Amino acid sequence: MRFAVVGAGAIGALHARTIADLDGGSLAAVVDVDQTRAERLADEHDATPLTELHQALSVPDIDAVAICTPSGNHAELAEAALKAGKHVVVEKPLDVSLEAGQRVARAERESGRTVAVISQHRFDRSSLAVDRAIREGRLGRVTSGSATVSWWRSQAYYDSAGWRGTWALDGGGALMNQGIHTIDLLVWFLGKPVEVFAWTGCLAHQRIEVEDTAVATVRFESGALGVIQGTTAAYPGLNARVQVHGDRGSAVIDDDLLTYFHAAAPGESGPDIGAGSPDNQARDLVPPVVSSTEGAARVAGITSTSHTAQYVDFLAAVRNGTSPLVSVTEALRTLAVVRAIYSSADAGQPVRIADIAP
Question: How many CA atoms lie within 13 A of 77 on its CB side?
Fold first, then answer.
């Protein structure tokens, strides 16, 4: 599969390197409005530099487009690529609004092509192991979970690019940009979200339109309850953490590593009062398939990046005519939670997901 990467910034360079090393994929073109940036990245991978997307879309043997531009124009570019008959990989988030994301879903259906939205941490060994444990019922009834991202971004970070910290192109702040991966894991683990209540604030930065701190509670269709906390105002920057709890077990993923796991054995009654995280089984929990980025890379015989496993999944989905693990539908569910958080914070009251994402 021959790819064009659209956007030659830092994330575009990561996609370009992933594709160039991918067994079954090659980088044909790099598109960027800044010709110098396009040429620099294209030269690294012996690809063709272009300055406009339509130039890449007119090339018959370009099969897929990887969109790595500011978030607010993802949908527009994805629609154009799908209408031209190309498959699409979109860097997170799908876009900054649900309406835009739904346009991508419609274009995908009409084109018969495949779209994957980057959420590479679903492919981490820890994430896959927890997902499997939940599906197998090892945690019992899942009752609650939390997603916490306590990071730091300086004022210089926001000042370094005009689109950062804007509603139009960044689509939000600590949640939409930095926290969305961790929120995605929480939603993947706990299922369909139905209602959100939230507070947001810009507490440590200037000259940005969006939040640098947010807290929210989420009610899921199963009855499970979730807590989300995200900030780029936690100096000097701490961790990203997901916790999942059930009436037969719990799991904790800390900075992509499974740091705690305990599931009750069949017939085990357990203590009447439990605290202190006893009997950590995390080291004993081995994924049933090769599923880490590194593992997928070894199977494909390629150099690994954080996105490698998801590209392997994307190629398989196109080849087999199946849905990728992180489809447009999955990405829309996570985007809806973030948009509901913003809506709730603005309104000062709970927001039902169905009311903003019919």
Answer: 27
Give the Cα separation of 309 and 266 in Å (integer).
33
Mode of pairing for the β-strands spanning 257-263 and 48-50: unpaired
Task: List C-alpha distances in Å: 353 to 97, 122, 201.
Answer: 13, 23, 21
Q: Write phi, then psi, for 329 (nearest 5 degrees).
A: -60, -45
Mind listing the pLDDT tens digit for each residue in 213-233?
999 999 999 999 999 999 999
Same domain, 103 and 166: no
Beta bridge partners of 352: 195
**Same domain, yes or no: 11 and 28:** yes
Give 283's DSSP letter. Answer: G
Domain count, the chain: 2
DSSP assignment string, 278-289: -S--GGG---SS
Do the domain assignments include residue 358? Answer: no
Distance set, CA 254 to CA 53, 61, 290 (Å): 39, 42, 20
Give residue-wise pLDDT tens across range 71-100. 999 999 999 999 999 999 999 999 999 999
Residue 142 lies in a domain: yes
The percent of residues above 70 in pLDDT, for the chain, comes to: 95
- Alpha carbon 295 to its chain's center: 20
pTM, two decimal places = 0.93
Tokens of 34: 């800044």
Q: What CATH number is associated with residue 132?
A: 3.30.360.10
Do 131 and 116 lie in a common domain?
Answer: no
Residues 161 and 172 in one domain: yes
Burial class of 9 by CB neighbour count within 10 A (0 to 12, 13 to 18, 19+): middle
Sheet-wide strand order for 26-31: 48-50, 26-31, 2-6, 64-67, 87-90, 115-117
Confirm whether 114 is domain-assigned. yes
Q: Range of 181's domain? A: 122-289+335-352
311 CB contacts (<8 Å, ≥6 apart)?
Answer: 18, 19, 22, 25, 89
Amino acid at the residue 102: Q
CB distance 85 to 65 below 8 Å: no
